[in-house]
Specification:
single chain, five-stranded mixed beta sheet, 166 residues, 7 strands, 25% helix, alpha/beta, Aminopeptidase, 21% strand, 4 helices
Length: 166
């Protein structure tokens, strides 16, 4: 399996519902998003950890690492989206749509698109030549409970020295 092109990745991530909400009737798992990212990261040469969040069934973090050693760069984002009101959308929120030179879909800019951009950016890199680790971090529930980021803190996971938040 090879990593799809950037717009195909964005489309697949947007098509995977992952709404997080403090209201249980709207809250959804992020497993499909994490699974897609994990497969693409493995294909790209990353070592992948799918981490279930204790006490939050159906919620997962992803830590994908290339390279070894201390002081790496973390490229971080979250896998969830906000709840939405479908009738207010002029297109299907779960379908990547281009209109007037812009991309639309739930999570396009906040923040599923960031992961597609990362994987596109590293597509032609020889990850074996990295002198410091490169870590892709995808957390659960930034839009509601912050359980993914809180779990990393509670677990004392130090992932790198520098971070870029998408």
């Amino acid at each position: 399996m090879s990593t799809p092109k950037m717009l195909d990745m964005m489309g697949q991530l947007i098509a995977a519902p992952s709404v997080s909400s403090v209201s249980p009737e709207w809250d959804q798992t992020n497993a499909a998003v994490v699974d897609r990212l994990a497969n693409w990261c493995e294909d790209a040469g990353f070592t992948v950890e799918r981490l279930p969040i204790p006490g939050y069934p159906g919620k997962f973090n992803l830590v994908a690492t290339a390279g070894t050693g201390p002081d790496g760069l973390v490229l971080a984002g979250h896998t969830d989206t906000v709840p939405f009101d479908g009738p207010l959308w002029s297109s299907d929120p779960f379908k990547l749509t281009e209109r007037d030179g812009r991309l639309y879909g739930l999570g396009t800019s906040d923040m599923k698109g960031f992961f597609a951009l990362i994987l596109e950016a590293v597509r032609d890199l020889d990850l074996a030549k990295l002198k410091h680790p490169l870590v892709l971090l995808a957390t659960a529930d930034e839009e509601s409970s912050m359980c993914g980021a809180k779990w990393l803190l509670d677990a004392n996971r130090r992932l790198g020295r520098h971070a870029v938040i998408g």
